Amino acid sequence: MGVTTQNSNHLLITVEEALKLILEKINPVEAELVPLTRSVNRVLAKVVVAQVDVPPFANSAMDGYAVIAADCQDASKQTPVLLKVIDNVPAGATPTKKLSPKKAARIMTGAPIPEGADAVIRFEETSEYIPAPAREGPGGGSLAEDEVLIYHTVAPGDNVRPAGEDVKTGQVILEAGHCLRPQDVGMLAAIGQAKVWVHRRPRVAILATGDELVDVDEPIEPGKIRNSNEYTQAALVEKYGGEAVMLGIARDTVEDLTAKIQEGLAQQVDLFLTSAGVSVGDFDIVKKVLAAEGEMQFWQVAIKPGKPLAFGELRSRDNAGHVTGNVPLIGLPGNPVAAMVAFEVFARPAILKLGGQRSYEKTALQACLDEEITNSGRRHYMRAFIHLEPDGYHVTTRGSGVQVQGSGILTSMVWANGLVVVPENVTYLPAGAPVEVWILD
Ligand code: AMP
Ligand code: MG
Questions:
Q1: In whole angstroms, what is the distance from residue 343 CA to residue 358 CA?
Q2: Distance between CA atoms of 111 and 73, rounded to whole angstroms?
Q3: Quick one: pLDDT at residue 401?
Q4: How confident is the model at residue 406 (pLDDT cuts 50, 70, 90)?
Q5: Which one of 236, 268, 321, 361 is separated from 422 by 20 to 30 angstroms, measured CA to CA?
Q6: Surrounding residues of ion ligand 2, Cβ less than 5 A
Q7: Does residue 333 line the site of ligand 1, with CB under 6 A?
Q8: 305 close to ligand 1 (CB < 6 Angstrom)
Q9: Which pLDDT belongs to residue 220?
């Protein structure tokens, strides 16, 4: 197993190695059939192939007259072409009359093109908009009810949307693993798919640990702090498509932690997230319990913040005590910012993979660094603020007065809209250097 080579970090596994070990133990959850109205933000479990053409028939892209283009080849304002109107086709209707030369059909946007017609000329280029000049000679006066003057040439195919212009029967529309966006939902409706196979939402247990923690609605006593991690993590789980199963706070005893873990396993969760208790302090018992209830794979990663990070698998059992399977557990650090960064780097891809997605890259951009930064041999994810300037994206790692990079400073996470990613082999970056920034929002 590769290791980073600098100073005290030599025993830590890299971010990539840790992520690989985690993802190896994660399998996508099963699929379920949901109605389209419940499908946004869900992940497709099967490829979608169109069984129809969209549009299903050639139709008009304009309100106007369906014509035979050849009839209008010399049309102009000075030399209009007179056509006889034989039909009026609103959207939703089926034209019954076939066009022969010197005939036209009045047609609305979306209505099927009548047989024989090969173009549509807009109302704006006909006597419907520009009144016909008075006719001279015998039979003079204005146009008859069923006559129209065409003032402009038109080419075959103009203003006609052919059948299958958008989608052709047999075309792959969306691949399995794709997370459905509003436009995808509309596309599924357009091809007549009222229900869709998606992965069920993975169930993710969230357990805070620590004797110092009190919950948000409990009275706070001396020496205690609020449990914020569980709420941040539940929100992140939901953001990435999971279902949060909040287990509350476990005290720093093997008995209590074991009991809470059993409670979570009984709720059929697909992944366990704990926070705190993975460091090297007296009461850091998550690793101990993980080893006793399953198997631990690693517990430190070359990342900053978030170095104490445990990963392993818990054994789940049925009522008779027989082992039924393994549930992966990611032991996130306790410091709120470290927990959040470690979540983005490790728990987020795990949840995406569980939920059926196939790529886990965080959306990132390249920005110009506002001030110099130093780094100490671990992959550093620095809270940062991205701002757009006339010459492109810039990013600052210093908030206004907040002590930004302390790993307990949650306000800095509230301030940040990105994370600057500083590679482990980079120890210094001058102001003005281009850097990779993960977009948080
Ligand atoms: P530990 O890893 O247990 O040493 O915890 C590291 C730091 O994170 C300590 O200052 C804890 O008080 C804090 N911490 C642990 N759990 C939580 C939590 N659920 N919410 C907010 N802060 C926490
Ligand atoms: Mg603790």
A1: 18
A2: 24
A3: 45
A4: confident
A5: 236
A6: 210, 276
A7: yes
A8: no
A9: 95
Q: For a ligand 1 pocket test, name from 207, 260, 275 the mutation site with the most ligand atoms within 8 angstroms of its C-beta.
A: 275
Backbone angles phi, psi at 39, to 5 degrees: -100, -10
More confident residue, 57 or 4: 57
Nearest CA to ligand 1 atom 6: 334
* Rounded-to-integer distance, Cα 328 and Cα 346, Å: 12
Task: For ligand 1, say whether the CB of 275 is within 6 Å of any of its atoms.
Answer: yes
pLDDT band at 9 (very low <50, low <70, confident <90, very high): low
Is residue 228 lining ligand 1, measured as CB closer than 6 Å?
yes
Which class for 430: exposed (0-12), middle (13-18), buried (19 or more C-beta within 10 A)? exposed
Spell out where 278-402 has E strands.
294-300, 303-304, 308-317, 323-332, 364-369, 373-374, 379-389, 392-396
pLDDT tens-digit profile of 216-225?
A: 999 999 999 9
Sheet holding 147-150, edge to edge: 119-122, 64-67, 103-107, 81-89, 147-150
Beta pairing class for 392-396 and 59-60: unpaired
Banded model confidence at residue 78, pLDDT cuts 50, 70, 90: very high
For residue 305, say if its preceding peptide bond is cis, omega within 30 degrees of 0: yes
Residue 274 CB less than 6 A away from ligand 1: no
Q: Is the CB of 229 under 6 A from ligand 1?
A: yes
Kindly state if the Cβ of 66 falls inside 6 Å of ligand 1. no
